[in-house]
Amino acid sequence: MVEQEIKKIVSDYTGLSVDKIDCSMDIQTELGLDSFSVISVVCDIEDKFGIEVPDEDFNKLRTLNDVISYIEQKQVNVA
């Protein structure tokens, strides 16, 4: 499940438990990820799901829900 995998990746960088992470949270302001951590999260997501997230798309992703929708869309387009 995409949501659980995303939460696990974010949990690794924030130290928050998976059950405390809400998908409506803003990646930087509510989860407290700095720019370097966000880039690391995106790299982990790219590796985990076998997708590439171009900079122009990356800048549009604000919440975990945005990230989940983006991944699901990419997976459908690849399949």
Explain what this protein looks like in three dimensions.
The protein is 59% helix and 0% strand. By secondary structure, the protein is an all-alpha fold. The longest helix has 15 residues, at 35-49.
Helix content: 55-70%
Give the N-to-C terminal Cα separation.
16 Å
Task: List low-pLDDT spans.
Answer: none
Task: Summarize the biggest pleated sheet.
Answer: none
Please provide the count of β strands: 0
Q: What is the approximate shape?
A: globular
Core attributes:
79 residues; mainly alpha
Précis, in short:
With about 80 residues, this protein is mainly alpha-helical. The chain contains four helices and no strands. The chain is globular and about 30 Å long.
Annotate the secondary structure layout.
Layout: H1 2-14, H2 35-49, H3 55-58, H4 64-78
